[in-house]
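Sequence, please.
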C-alpha cells in the first residue's frame, strides 16, 4: 500500500529542476505515470488511485478502506469522491460510484485519497448495516480511525445508522468475527470474545462457558502446520470438557442462517444432555 498517494504537478517537478525532456523520459520508462495534463504520480502507486486521479477525484468508501487493509465484505465498483464544486470530471471507463458530499476532514490538495474517517463514512453508507459494522470494527482494530472519531462519524450518518454504535467492538480481529458476533447476539446466548483459556490459548468466542467457536479464514489456516496446531488446541480444549466448533469465514459471510442453526443445535444438545444427567 502506498502510504499517502499524491499527484505531482508539473510545477513541482520544474521546481526540482526537471526539464520537459526529463519528464517525458520518466513517463516513457515508467518512473512517472501521467494522470492528466500537468499531473503525474510516481511508479508503484495503486491502479485504483491512478484511476481516481485521472477522474479528477480521490479514492473513498470501500475502495479506499480495502486499500488500507480494512475489512470490506464486498468492494463493488470503484468509489471516487469528487468535490461538489468541481467543474470538470472525467468518468473512468470501469464501473464506479461518485460521492459528492462535503468532506469531514480536509485532505492534502494533491492527495489521491480522502482521509480515513471520510472513507469510512462513505463505506458505511455504501454497505449493508452488518457489513458496515464489520468495517467499523476493523478500522478501529487496525488503528485506521480512533474510538474518539466515532462521535464525528455517527453524527454525520443518517439517524437510522446510529443504532450500530452500541454494537461496535474493536476487539474483533477479522470481519468474520464481527459478523459472527451478530449471529450470537441474534441467537441471544451468553458469550465472550477473545478469551484466554489455560492450556488452549486465546479463542475467538466462548459461549456459555463451554462452547469454543473459532472463525477460520484461508489466510491463517491454509497450511498443514496451522491446521495441525488447531487440532491440537481442540484436543486440549476437549480435555477440559470444552467443545469446539470451527466455522469458515465464507460461511459466516454468506450462509449465516446455517451457521446460526449449527450453534443452536449444539446448545439444544447440551441442554438435553444436562437434563438427562440431572
Amino acid at each position: 500500500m502506498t502510504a499517502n498517494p499524491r499527484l505531482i504537478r508539473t510545477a513541482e517537478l520544474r521546481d526540482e529542476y526537471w526539464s520537459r525532456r526529463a519528464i517525458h523520459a520518466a513517463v516513457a520508462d515508467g518512473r512517472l505515470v501521467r494522470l492528466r495534463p500537468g499531473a503525474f504520480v510516481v511508479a508503484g502507486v495503486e491502479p485504483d488511485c491512478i484511476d481516481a486521479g485521472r477522474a479528477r477525484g480521490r479514492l473513498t468508501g470501500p475502495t479506499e478502506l480495502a486499500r488500507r487493509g480494512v475489512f470490506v465484505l464486498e468492494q463493488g465498483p470503484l468509489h471516487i469522491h469528487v468535490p461538489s464544486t468541481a467543474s470538470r470530471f472525467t468518468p473512468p471507463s470501469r464501473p464506479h460510484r461518485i460521492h459528492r458530499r462535503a468532506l469531514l476532514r480536509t485532505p492534502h490538495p494533491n492527495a489521491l485519497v480522502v482521509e480515513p474517517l471520510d472513507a469510512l463514512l462513505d463505506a458505511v453508507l455504501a454497505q449493508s448495516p452488518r457489513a458496515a459494522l464489520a468495517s467499523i470494527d476493523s478500522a478501529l482494530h487496525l488503528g485506521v480511525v480512533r474510538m474518539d472519531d466515532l462521535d464525528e462519524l455517527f453524527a454525520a450518518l443518517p439517524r437510522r445508522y446510529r443504532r450500530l454504535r452500541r454494537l461496535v467492538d474493536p476487539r474483533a480481529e477479522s470481519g468474520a468475527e464481527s459478523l459472527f458476533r451478530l449471529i450470537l447476539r441474534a441467537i441471544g446466548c451468553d458469550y465472550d470474545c477473545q478469551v484466554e483459556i489455560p492450556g488452549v490459548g486465546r479463542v475467538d468466542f466462548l459461549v456459555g462457558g463451554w462452547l469454543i467457536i473459532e472463525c477460520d479464514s484461508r489466510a491463517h489456516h491454509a497450511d498443514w502446520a496451522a491446521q495441525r496446531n488447531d487440532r491440537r488446541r481442540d484436543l486440549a480444549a476437549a480435555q477440559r470438557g470444552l467443545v469446539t466448533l470451527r466455522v469458515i469465514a465464507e460461511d459466516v459471510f454468506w450462509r449465516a442462517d446455517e451457521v446460526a442453526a449449527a450453534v443452536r443445535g449444539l446448545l439444544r444438545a447440551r441442554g438435553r444432555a444436562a437434563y438427562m444427567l440431572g
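The CA atoms of residues 51 and 129 lie 28 Å apart.
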